[in-house]
Amino acid sequence: QVQLVESGGGLVEPGESLRLTCDSKHSISLADAMGWYRQAPGKQRELVIVMLRSGETTYADSVKGRFTISEDPAAGTQDLQMNNLKPDDTGVYYCYVRKSGYEFWGQGTQVTVSS
Asked: What is the average pLDDT value for the chain, to the nearest integer?
């Protein structure tokens, strides 16, 4: 059974950074795609960043130049580095993995950006 567990969320002020980690606990390997989505209050879940196995990466326009994704296959984790955070980045962030046509989601971690 695939498990995705996010950590690293919290409350920060505008301009600060956060690093989110998604731990698959080695329940999945060689994913076709991995990434992060977020859902702000009252809004639909939206793509933040998704990286294909080829390395091709798609970013939401609002996070380009500020957010990056990385993977540590040995640890079974993927990280989302978020810099220069803005209040509009507030939301629940979900880890995402796709493999063989199946999609898997974490339970989400809250990120709040506020002064």
From this structure: 95
